[in-house]
Amino acid sequence: MLIKRLRGWEIPEHLVTPESVFLDRRALLGGSAGLAAAAMLGGRALAETGPYPAPRNDAYALDRPLTPEKFSGDYNNFYEFGTSKTVLPAADALKTSPWTIKVDGLVEKPFDIGVEDLVRKVGLEERLYRHRCVEAWSMSVPWTGFPLAKLVALAKPASGAKYVQLTTFLDRKMAPGQRTFYPWPYVEGLTMEEAGNDLAFIATGIYGKPLPNQFGAPIRLALPWKYGFKSIKSIVKVSFVAERPKTFWEALGPSEYGFWANVNPAVPHPRWSQASERVLGTDTRVPTLIYNGYGEQVAGLYKDLQGERLFA
Ligand code: MTE
């Protein structure tokens, strides 16, 4: 979903859905190095969002193998650190501690909370989720985190709050990608009903340890029934608002990337099919499922929204 300033918002097709150029790079935090190693990397402090590994919630199982970290950890979209999939080295510049999240907007009382305090309040669990990028690749990973609904409950939103708007950090010095023309900071949003769905998950870890930087450390969203761009990384602000947020990708290419972005194999992207997906770490394609296989849990959210562009 690379967008370069060509003519208007034209997107060069050859830069979309790149084929498997996997570098078998050693994982940033391999094996069970655990929190001690994770908390200090190359002399830099990382947010201690432990303890890891957290107990697995078996209600969120998968019918396909987990994607090994050597593939998912070196094939990332994190435009703050460049448009290449190999952002791992550049994302090393992300300073994740201290990390404070601002909760504001239509809430009983706005507050700031450190990510460690937040985790202490809400607890952690592990879930196995699918992830389907709009570029037609997918992975299956064990996230560690907590339901977004727990953060909503802490925030005590007012009745006028209709949407949750999430914002990534803005630091042009730290993140070279933010020196480009894109509409920084990265913003995403979902309705209060979506945020209250049990599948909406805030992740602080993956593969049984804190998030390595390139995955969006120290805290990100995981919305498995939506295209991956909805799963915003490195969140610094959670705002409760009355109006539908204008999201990063919607601002860049409204005809290609909408607010809802629910996975649907029957609705092609304007420039490519969404019928199947390439599973990271393999050369095979598998059929894509409506709502990425989570229809039973989420289809009801959209029953009264049939006039909306739910699948773009
Ligand atoms: N969040 C921010 N802040 N910046 C980004 O570039 N990319 C999105 C999403 N969240 C992105 C982001 C896209 S397009 C995808 S597919 C997923 O993150 C990729 O997550 P992963 O790198 O952990 O696989």
From TrEMBL:
Keywords: Metal-binding, Molybdenum, Oxidoreductase, Signal
The keyword Nucleotide-binding is annotated on this UniProt entry: no
Cofactor: Mo-molybdopterin
EC number: 1.8.5.-
Reaction catalysed by this enzyme: L-methionyl-[protein] + a quinone + H2O = L-methionyl-(S)-S-oxide-[protein] + a quinol; L-methionyl-[protein] + a quinone + H2O = L-methionyl-(R)-S-oxide-[protein] + a quinol
Modifications the protein undergoes after translation, according to the UniProt entry: Predicted to be exported by the Tat system. The position of the signal peptide cleavage has not been experimentally proven.
Cofactor binding description: Binds 1 Mo-molybdopterin (Mo-MPT) cofactor per subunit.
Keyword Signal: yes
Domain Oxidoreductase molybdopterin-binding: 94-249
First-level EC class: oxidoreductase
Binding site for Mo-molybdopterin: N76, Y79, E80, C133, T168, R220, S231, I232, K233
Self-association state and partner proteins as the record states: Heterodimer of a catalytic subunit (MsrP) and a heme-binding subunit (MsrQ).
Cross-referenced HAMAP family: MsrP
Cited function: Part of the MsrPQ system that repairs oxidized periplasmic proteins containing methionine sulfoxide residues (Met-O), using respiratory chain electrons. Thus protects these proteins from oxidative-stress damage caused by reactive species of oxygen and chlorine generated by the host defense mechanisms. MsrPQ is essential for the maintenance of envelope integrity under bleach stress, rescuing a wide series of structurally unrelated periplasmic proteins from methionine oxidation.
Family the entry assigns: Belongs to the MsrP family.
Protein name: Protein-methionine-sulfoxide reductase catalytic subunit MsrP
Organism: Methylobacterium cerastii
